[in-house]
Each structure stands twice: as C-alpha cells, then as structure tokens.
Amino acid sequence: MSFSSLGLSGPLLRALEEKGYSEPTAIQCKAIPAVLSGRDLLAAAQTGTGKTAGFCLPLLQRLDAGAGVKSNLVRALVLVPTRELAEQVGQSLAAYGRYLPLKSTVVYGGVKINPQMMKLRGGADVLVATPGRLLDLCERNAVKLSQVETLVLDEADRMLDLGFIGDIRKILAMLPRSRQNLLFSATFSGDITAFTGDLLRNPVRIEMNPGNAAARSVRQWVCEVDKAKKAALLSHLVCNRGLEQVLVFVRTKNGADALTRRLAQDGVCAASIHGDKSQPERARALSAFKSKEVRVLVATDVAARGIDIRELPVVINFDLPKVPEDYVHRIGRTGRAGSEGEAISLVSADEVRLLGAIETLIRQPLMRDQLAGFVPTQQVPLTRFRDRPAKPKKPKKPKQGAGDAPKSSADQKPGGGKGQGVGCGDAVPSKKGAAPKPKRGAARQEDRGRRP
Length: 452
Ligand code: AMP
Fold this sequence. Notes:
Rossmann fold, single chain
C-alpha cells in the first residue's frame, strides 16, 4: 500500500517523502480514507502506531479543500491531554502541511497566555490545545469555536484519567452540532465507551490492538529485585548493557528527582521531567535526551505523554504504575512505528498486585528474570493471571549464562502453572501459588563480556 493510493494530495505526498515515510502504517491505511470521506472515527490505537499522521494528513487535506480561516475562528480543533503531546502534534502538522497554505497554532497552560492570544487573532485552520488553556482563551474571547468543522480528541482515555471530562464537556457545548469527530484512545474503559456513545455518529471503528494488547514489537520482561536495590540495578543495567538512550518511568515527582541524583552519583548522566518542572526546563531535558547528551530521562507518567523519540530502544519501569493502562502507554514509547523495542520492569515483592493487574489487562503473563548480584531476598510472589496461557511447555534444563535479555514470550510459559511467569534462567516447573525459587547459580550472568 502506498500513501498515494490512499488518496492523499501532491503537497502532502511531497512532505511525506521528505519525512522519509515510504509506506503507511496499518492505522494510517484505515484512518486516512475514513477521515477523507468525512465520517466520524473511533480508533483504538496506542502511541507508536503512527496515529498522529493517521489523522493529521487527511485533516489537512480536507481543510485545504475548504474556505480559508477568519479572525479568532478555528476550523479544526485537536484536544490533547498534555503540553508535550500538543507540541508533538503541532510539529507533525507543520511537517506534513509544509506545502499547504494552512495555519496551525498550538496552545497549552504553564506559559504566558498573551502571546497565544495574539497568535489567535488571525484565526487558525487547526488549533491544537490542552482543555484548560483553551477554556481560558475562550473566556477571554481570544478564540471562537462556533465554526469548528472537525474535532479530534487525541489520547482521550488519558484526558479522562486526568480529570478533563468537565472541561471537555464545556468545550463540546461551544462547538457547532454538525461536525466531524475523530477519537483516538489507547485503551477502552467503560468511561470512554459511555463518553463516545454521546459524541460520535455512526463512526468508522478501527482497533489496532484488540483488548488493550501491548505493542507486539516490544519485548517485555520483568526483572525481580528488592526495592532498596532498584537504583543500583538501574545503574548496572544502563552501564553494563551499554544503554545509550533510556526512558525511565517513576510514579512520583520526588521519586524522579531522587533517582536522577542517584544516577548522577553513579556517573550516569540523567535528567528528569515531571509536572513541577517549568515548560522550558522540560523542553531542555527532552532536547538533551534526544541529542543523547543525557543518557537517561526519568519521567513521571503525565510528563512523558507526548514524548516522541523515534525508535527509542529501551523503556524501563523503575516502579510499576498504579493504573495498569499506564503500562501500555509507557511501553508504547519504545518499538514505535513497528521498530523493535524492549520494556524492562523492575519489580519488587510489594508490587505484585500491580503486576497482576497489568498482566490481566494485556492478557499475558510477563516473563520474569533476575540478575546476578540483584537476586531479591524478598521473593516476588506469582500473580493470578486469569487468562489461560498457551499449551504448557516442557520445562527446559536450567542453563548457566544463557545470554542476555529474555528472548521470547514463549519462554515465560511455565510448566503446568496458570500463566505465572518464571525467570527464563531458572526454567523450573513452579507449583501453583508458590513463588519461583531463584537459585544463585540460576540467576543471570548477563553481563559477562559486555561493554562497561
Ligand atoms: P505516533 O503513533 O503518531 O506517535 O507516531 C509514532 C512515530 O512513528 C513518530 O515518530 C512518527 O514520525 C513515525 N511515523 C508515523 N508514520 C510513519 C510512517 N508511515 N513511516 C515511518 N514512520 C512513521
């Protein structure tokens, strides 16, 4: 399939060629014709699938075919949960629309409102906005939403999680009744389903990852460790595996700062990005990470939304998220647009319930492993993963020094258990309900012969 066969116009094809996109991703193949036809769209697609181009390209083409914009008016509105995602979508629009005479504007909170008011004076063909700042601008009459032709809700699940539902309802009330609606969400909770029922009219449905399955191109595994040793294990992984660009997720802002300091003590150049950092600080940290001046970027879930770094090789969950859907978002940072990625979760005994919730959501037990020198003294219990695993495999004989990271999810299917993963180094049949017994000899000797 080629972009031109999807019906995209010459100026867009030229911009895509310059971006180096040779063919559309799966979601683009489905979304582009649907949006071009003017239908509403409901897309279950996580970040990394190419969904942004999936809506930006046909949106720009439709806008180009219509009448120009008038002062303070907006023709297409893209609502996003975070500033970073707003910037990211704005950059995509600018790149794809570079040969079209259309004006895109990006607005979000945490920065001065006056320059944004000035930018909106002449109106915008596309306005990308976070909900709170958009309402502020509407209250000041800097922007009018009465002529919006298309509404896009990007990462809608995240917007609901962040409590934007009230703001979104206020915004919807300002839009004309007749318009096109496009909704993208990584996960489909009951809240989203209820919300979309009111919003969308006979939408085209696209489901890229049925049942919230995490991106297939991401090799996911759990590294069992005691809580107190997590920071040391992280430094060890980064240094001994020669990881050059690692995105590390933590749950709290304080946790992010403390971990960044600790990494620096271990000689690992790191920066943090979280909600207490100003926009310029976040932008600086992100650009240093992108240019590889900073090796590790430590981020909270909210701050990490919208970070787009192509082919990010590794994501590490320093702690597991409280909300299992966040796991899917986190690992969506790697293995983007079909490239291979690795997601490692450092899991301590107290996190087993969170691990269980994640495995239930993604419908697969995560492979577990332990590293020599970091074998936990407090065992991480087995989870009660509910789906049946594939046929039980014959247990393999434990191998000493069996390579580096786990090789395939098939490794994790334990002999006869109910889907509980065991370390691939210690591939012993585990009794139902019993914790896997790590033996010192069976722990991974992963770092032998690797770069320091
Ligand atoms: P998204 O899921 O929209 O966040 O996009 C993920 C990444 O894939 C971004 O870095 C895009 O620039 C990239 N991308 C989107 N579409 C394509 C494509 N057709 N070919 C190659 N890369 C793409």
